[in-house]
Amino acid sequence: MIKEKDTRHQGSICTNESKLNHQWYHQLKYLFVGILFGIIFVKAEIISWFRIQEMFRLQSFHMYGVIGSAVLTGMISVWIIKKFKIKTIYGEPISIVDKKFNKGQIYGGLIFGFGWAITGACPGPLFAQIGTGAFAVIITLLSAVFGTWVYGYFRDKMPH
């Protein structure tokens, strides 16, 4: 049986959720960062269906280089946060909780990878793809939202 603490960390609840209450316009920073990332994704061709297909067909290093540099940046960032006990810009502590490995992560990763290969889109760049005029991606977005809802609905009945 899974303990309550383990279930919380597997869920969508953020363990570093801020206790501060901000005005609504403080959330605009996320909109601007999202727009900036969208522009970067488009310019770097990260959202290109053709680049994604090249990656899955092992025809190009482009996407592997981007993903690898993102993983390396993330590893270094987490190491720095842990080593120097970095806090948020509002002075709140950041806690990074270790997660246990389970076989469901392999199944989920395979399903995610198959979906990515078939649709040419992962959840991050969906909005950037739609913003470039690839309106067929709206079906992928709706499917992702529906899949997330289905998982949330049946989560308690699934073996974790």
UniProtKB/TrEMBL annotation:
Methyltransferase is among the record's keywords: no
Q: Which domain of life is it from?
A: Bacteria
Transmembrane regions? 30-50, 62-81, 106-128, 134-154
The UniProt keyword set, sorted, is: Membrane, Transmembrane, Transmembrane helix
Instruction: Enumerate the InterPro entries for this protein.
Output: Sulf_transp_TsuA/YedE (IPR007272)
Q: What protein does this entry describe?
A: Transporter
Q: Which organism is this protein's natural source?
A: Chryseobacterium aquaeductus
